[in-house]
Structure formats: structure tokens, C-alpha cells
Amino acid sequence: MEPKILAQFRALLPAAAVITRPEELYTYECDGLTNFRVRPDAVFLPSSTPEVQSILRVCHEHHIPFVARGSGTGLSGGSLPVEGGVVIGMNRMSRILEVDLENGIMVVEPGVINLNVTAAAASRNYFYAPDPSSQQICSIGGNVAENAGGAHCLKYGFTTTHVRGLEVVLPDGSLVHLGGKAPDAPGYDLCGVFVGSEGTLGIATKIILRLVKRPERVQILLAAFHSTHDAGGAVSEIIAAGILPAAIEMMDRLSIQAAEAAVHPHYPDCHSLLLVELDGPGAEVESLMAEVKDICARCGAWELRVAQSVAERAAFWKGRKAAFAAMGRIASNYIVQDGVIPRTALPVVLGEIERLSAEVGLRVANVFHAGDGNLHPLVLFDRAVEGQAHAAEELAFRIVELCVKAGGSITGEHGVGEEKKKYMSVMFAEPDLETMQRVRCAFDPLQLSNPTKVFPRPRLCGEKTGEYVPHPLETSGQAQFF
Amino acid sequence: MISREEQEKYPAAAAPENPSAEIAAIVGVDHIRDAAASDAVAGVAPAKVIEPGSAVEFSGVLAVADRSGLAVLPRGGGTKSDWGNPPRRADAVVSTRRLNRILEHAWGDLTLSVEAGCTISQVQAALAEHGQRLAIDPLWPERATVGGILATNDSGSLRTRFGSLRDLIIGITVALPNGVLARSGGKVVKNVAGYDLPKLNTGALGTLGVITQAVFRLHGLPRESRSVSFGSNSLEKICARMNAVRDSNLSYTSLQVRASGEGNYRLDLLWEGTPEGIATQDRELSALTGDLQSADPDGCWSTRESLWDQKGAPRAVVKVSILPMELANFCATLESSCKAARSIAWEIVFQSPGVGLLRIEEDESRLVDTLTRLRAHAEKSSGSLVVLSAPPEIRERFDAWGDPSDALPLMRAVKQQLDPHGILNPGRFVGGI
């Protein structure tokens, strides 16, 4: 970055909020997806909305691309820096601004950690429903950018269901308020558009969250099966019976072994297990749990355990939530995919993944949100073995393709980011993507906000002021002017 | 509102000489007709009514309209045609009447793909065959269509438990003025690929494109359901009990408050679940509602529709959105404003804690003042007041939407990107969009 521009940034922020030393910039090279790395020109750590505004104004003036970053736990490279750009770390904006439990809402800054929201709401028995496995560390701002999910989204919905309103700094530095505290604010639901836009529309600086009342009773069942096929059958039957559990999670043999080695949840030694959590009124949970146990037994479950205490329930979840990290116990490297399929396609797609895995000669562990068909196949490989990394990427892509062919999606909760933008054309036609990019142009005509993510090809916005100079992407044939 | 400068910046391609003929060639001569008096929208009469037979025909019609600068008013069942501001211009109504197929009920996956012109009753009847439903209970389900309820964002009282339409729609196909059919979202309940255009189009009043198809997540029909109603002559008491229920961990499906100038206040609650669950919860509920009188719940969930009845006096029906704890305050302002203005009658149904429909019968000269006062109260406490139906004289003097906040320029920019010539429902949405 030109020293003159850097000086302009320095004038806006305290010295400790500007990071430019190469060894310190390493921290920001990547997010949870570590195989993509770009070193940013600088990192800024604003403490207030006006600071964010003034940073973006300078970026706008000099056409400097920026990437906002929360805790950096994203798994699709969403907060991967952009070449020649800056990173804006939102962690210092971590205040809970307003707790209004009587109305079931809370106003927070983006750096607040997910689990802290629930902690702040606990006194009146409220909780914040979206629970990504990284909830102890991930930030609400990041959750908003990615529309984060989690195991309990099956019943309670995703981040977008729980965000009522936003204060957003647009890429030109201006401030807008989208949505509001009360539902159905007049006008377009731009809050709904912003959530899940992966940082491409601006930076959220305040978030109005909706809280949910804790159910009277929570019960979790662990069911062990001889095969994923049997377990998948049980999932379908539970849904067909009209039961909506709070969560249904499935793990296969490989992921059970890895979790067992890492955090010792004492799962049964089985080929496949289901975790089925029911919540609601006590009497209802009890009668439905009896039904779920019957269904699982009928579908071939050979061991059924209902957690008898809060501690036991936590232990059941521990293995599941640690599953990704536990892969290190059984493989040196892995790629995690996030494809979604219609639930009913589960047996076919799992069979096909098995076949592909055998064909390529790489192991694939499966751990997923079975209730909503969100697979997390983990392709295991060893980077030290020549060609394996490439083969693993290829296999991961074929699995995603499989999901789309089955009527599903390339991503259920991790986001498109850098990693999956090349898959977007598998799922959407060109006019679909072009229409989305038109919306992007309304927010960010200069395309400065996380510009290289989500879309396979950037679309230039119709900025026709001044003399027309072709964009380099245009002359190189990578982009088209509309 | 698209300014003249903006229109010149994006000049239309050569306009067809005879757009009607070109449209007739797309939809067939039998599906374009002269408009009748009953086709008027909020008092503005269009020239033609066009009924395309497919999504592709829709995009073709919009492309011709766009090139010719024809103002197009999308219409489903026509039950809420007068919601929003009157259109600035009206050349043609385009109706989704012929897009009335249920495309796929994937009952094992709890999803539904449906064309926009299907009525809600038609959808629910088909889903019920497999013990499922779309968890909404909008106004006039026999006539209201999927596209219409989405455009107007009418969810009903089930939203308390299941969320509103924005939380249930998972995919959409929209015909755009540039002749494109754009799809976003998908057919699976969990999906974060690309922007959430289903939400953008929900509640957009057809100003960004015409919804031709939607995909929803479904829920099972309840095993058992039971409605209970309580009455009191004290509004404070009703609101206090509503909040006690909200603060409990009872698992209710709907929670409704009704109030009127006649001094009858009601609290309605819908239980859904297993017989055991309902029985025990109902007992717990009586501990919270002990000092209220038990009332007849019959018809309480469709009573909203009667707010539109014509009883002779001029009346306005508005949608009020406020925080649940503000409900009692708002009703107090309502009561005092109506008393001061000597209103003939008023009635409000909060179909969920915070979202209500209000009918006021009052002399036209005073109605605007009353609405202004109520809107000020709602907006001051982080809410809104939106006019759904009102006499033309009121429409002229009182904007339907109120303050769209500092996001209005951004909303206009979105409109500009998707409908640059402003042909879709011109002038009907917030800020003159």
C-alpha cells in the first residue's frame, strides 16, 4: 500500500488498531479453511461504527478492496483476504448493547461471541438458537455474514430467522438501518438479503437478535445401527411420523472412531449412530421419545440410550461437535464438504459417496445434520503423498456435484466463499447469478466489499459517470459490461 | 421513484410499435382482453388484462412491457389488490391465474414446489393428503394465491410458532423486466448458496419482478389442536396475561389479542401437539389466566377477515407492527385517539404478539389525523403502521407505508437494478418506488 494512503488510515485509528508488520499479518492470511492464503496489505481493528465508516470511506476513495473478519472460523474462505486489499477485524466491537428480554430481543455488536448471547439471556430462560459447532469462539458478525446454521436449526431455523435488524456500513462508508426491532418493517427485506451475503454487501456494525424461550424439557437419544442405510431409514420414518425433533445428527464409523479417540464420548462401537434430540412440553417429549425409540428399534437400532442427566447429554453432543477437529486423529489432512440433499436421497447419495471413495482410494468420513439433509463428508488424505491433495479436491467436487444432481445445494451452512464459487455454476444458471449480482451492484457499485467471493465471475456495475475506461477484467475477457 | 435523469441514463430499447399485438403473439389472443371496471387497482383502471400461461410467457410479456414502458400490475387472486399506494400508472394487469399447478410435493422431504397462481386452500388440500401443511393461515385462503400472499407478506397467526413467510420460503422463480427468469434458493430446507432473493421478493409488492414459482418448507399437520379463549373488560389485564404466557415455557402455536371500542377484550391461544402435551399445558395455562373469563373460541382465527366488511361508514384497515411489551400502550393511544376523534368504531386483532390488523371507522376528515397520531406512536416505539385498505381521499393524503428509514436510497438502488424503467407496480411501494 502506498505510504500516503496508509498514513491516511493511521490518522483515523489508534496506533494499536493498525497492523502492518508482515509477521503480524500472517495471523490474518486465512480463516478456518487453511489451504487458501493471501496476505493482506494491512489489518485494521476498529472499535466503533464511526471508525468503520471512516476506514471504508478511505477504501472507497482509493478503490481498495476490504474483507471483514470476525473470529476467522469460517470454513469456505469467506474472510480470506483479497490481493492488494485490507482486512477489517471486528473483534474489538464486542459489546452487548441492549438486553430486552421482555420483548425477547438483544442488540449486539458484531464481535460478540455466539455463546455469550445465550449467556446474557439465560436469566429469563431465553436462548439464542443458532448453534454452529464453533459457537464457543465464532462471532455474531461472522454468523450474520455466513447465515450460520448448527444442529438445532432443524427446528429453530438459521441465523437469518433470528436477525430482526441490522446497522450496516455500506462500502461507500454510509450508514443504513435494515429491518428493525419489531417484525415486518416496511420496505424491502434487505436485512434478509444481507444475512448470508458473505461480507459482499458491506459490514454489519449492530445486530438486533431475536431470542427463543427455552423449552420445558430436552431429551436426547443415542441410537446405534449396523449401517448408515438403517440409520437413514430411521430418519425418514421419524419425519414421516410428523415428529419435528430439535436435532437429528448422524455419524458413520470413521467419524465415530475419530471422535472416540479425541474426546472419548463413549459412543457404542457401531457402524452408524443417530443423535435425536426432542424438546418441548415434558409430557409431549416423553410420549414422542417413546415413539422415536420404537421407530429406531424397528429400523434396526441395536442400542438405545437416552441421556439421564445434563452431563450425559453434553457428553453425547461432545463427540458430535468435536468431529471435524477429531479427524486429525485418523488422517493428516481433510477437506470438509457441506452439500445438502433432499432427505429422501440420503441412502442413494451415501451409497454413491461410498462407491466414489472406493474408486478414488481415499477414505470419506460422514458426519451430518441428517434431519435437514446437510451432509458433511470429510475427504481424508495425506498432503505428503504426491497427488493425494489433488485427488481429494476432485473427489470433494464430485460429491458436491452429486448433491446438486440429487436436487440439493452446494452449501448448507459453511457458505460459498472462495472455495465453492466455482461450483455456483453447477447449481445456478447464468441469469440467476447475474440477477444476484445486480442486487450486489445496488449495495456496492465499486465492488470493494469482499469482491472476489461467492460469484464465479464478477459482474461490473453500470457506473457510467465520467469517461468510460474498460475494467481490466473486461479487456481480459473475464467479465462483461452490462 | 425513478427520476427523469435516471430514465434517460437507461434508455429503453426501440419500443415495439404495437405492444398489444406482440403480447398477444406470446400469450395467445384468448389471453389478453380489455380490462373491466372490476380490474381497477385502488381506483386506477388498467387498459388490458393479460393472463400468461407459463413462466416463460411471463418473462416475454414483461420484456415487451419494459421496452414499451407499459406499467404492469401483477395480480394473483385479487384479494389484496388495493394494498399499498395507488399505482401512478396502470397499463395492464398481468394475472397468474393460469399458473396454478402444484409442481411437486416431496412429502418425504417436507417441501413443496408450486406455481404462483395456486390458491392457499388448493395447496393445503393437496398437502393434507400426506398429513402436511404450509404453516400459514393468511386472509381469504380460498381465493388468495401463493404469489399474492408472498408479495403482500400475509402470514397469519401461525407465525408465532412457525415464523412468517420469509422463514418458510426456500426457493423462488421470478420473471424480470429484462426478460430473464431468475431462480434463487433451492429445493432443500438448508441452503446458503447465493443471495436470498426469496426474502427480497417476499413483501416487495411485486415491484421487483413477478413471482412465478415458489418452494416452501412444510410442517406436519398437528396430531391434535385446541383453541382456548379468554375474555375481560380490562385491556391491561389481557395484555398482562399475554405477557405472562410469553414469559412462561408453554409451547403454544398462536397467541392473539383482540380489542375493540366496545370494550370487549380477548386473549386467544392455539394449542397443537400430542393429547398429553396439550392436557398438561392447558392446566398450567389456567394458573396464568385464572382471573380471566373463559370465552367461546369459535372462529377466533378467521375473525381478521371481518375487519374488511363494508358497514356503510368510511373505514381504513391498517397493519400495525410493534414490540409485544408496547401492545398495551399502543392500544391506550388507540382508545384515546378514537375517543377524541369520536370514531364510529374501531377493532384491532393482534394475530401474533406484535403484529396486528386494525380497522377504524371514522369521518374521513378526522381519519387522517387519527392515523397520523397512531403511526407516530408506532414508529416512536420501533414499529410501523402500514395502510392496507382506505378510501381514495385518505390515500391521497396519507402515504401507505410511513418512514422507510435511511435505507430508502438503497431500496431505490435495488429497484433501479431490477426494474430500471419502473414498469412494475409504479408508485405503490415505499418512498414512491
- The averaged pLDDT of chain A comes out at 92
> Architecture of the largest domain in chain B, according to CATH?
2-Layer Sandwich
* Total tally of structural domains of chain A: 3
- Number of discrete helical segments of chain B: 14
Structural overview:
Chain A has helices at residues 3-10, 22-25, 49-62, 114-121, 140-146, 153-156, 190-194, 228-240, 253-263, 282-298, 310-321, 323-326, 346-360, 388-405, 424-427, 430-443, 472-475; strands at residues 18-19, 42-44, 66-69, 86-89, 96-100, 105-108, 126-127, 163-169, 175-179, 203-210, 212-213, 217-225, 247-252, 272-280, 303-306, 333-336, 364-369, 377-381. By secondary structure, chain A is α+β, with helices and mostly antiparallel strands. Chain A folds into three domains: 3-89, Uridine Diphospho-n-acetylenolpyruvylglucosamine Reductase, domain 2 (2-Layer Sandwich); 96-213, 2-Layer Sandwich (Uridine Diphospho-n-acetylenolpyruvylglucosamine Reductase, domain 3); 217-405, FAD-linked oxidases, C-terminal domain (Vanillyl-alcohol Oxidase, Chain A, domain 3, 3-Layer(aba) Sandwich). In chain A, the strands form four sheets. In chain A, strands 15-12-14-13-17-18-16 form a seven-stranded antiparallel beta sheet, sandwiched between helices. The radius of gyration of chain A is 23 Å and the shape is globular. With 433 residues, chain B is of the alpha+beta class. Chain B has four domains: 4-97 and 410-432, Uridine Diphospho-n-acetylenolpyruvylglucosamine Reductase, domain 2 (2-Layer Sandwich), CATH 3.30.43; 102-220, Uridine Diphospho-n-acetylenolpyruvylglucosamine Reductase, domain 3, CATH 3.30.465; 224-295, 2-Layer Sandwich (Alpha-Beta Plaits); 304-402, EIF_2_alpha (Alpha-Beta Plaits). Helix content of chain B is 31%, strand content 24%. Chain B contains 14 helices and 19 strands. Chain B has helices spanning 4-9, 19-27, 55-68, 120-128, 146-152, 159-162, 165-168, 197-201, 235-247, 275-288, 327-340, 364-380, 392-397, 408-418; strands spanning 32-34, 48-50, 72-75, 92-95, 102-106, 111-115, 132-133, 169-175, 181-185, 210-217, 219-220, 224-232, 254-260, 265-273, 293-295, 315-321, 345-352, 355-361, 384-389. In chain B, the strands form four sheets. An eight-stranded antiparallel beta sheet of chain B has the order 15-12-14-13-17-18-16-19. A five-stranded antiparallel beta sheet of chain B has the order 5-6-10-8-9. Chain B is globular. At the A-B interface, β9, α7, α8, α10 and α16 of A face β9, α8, β11, α9 and α10 of B.
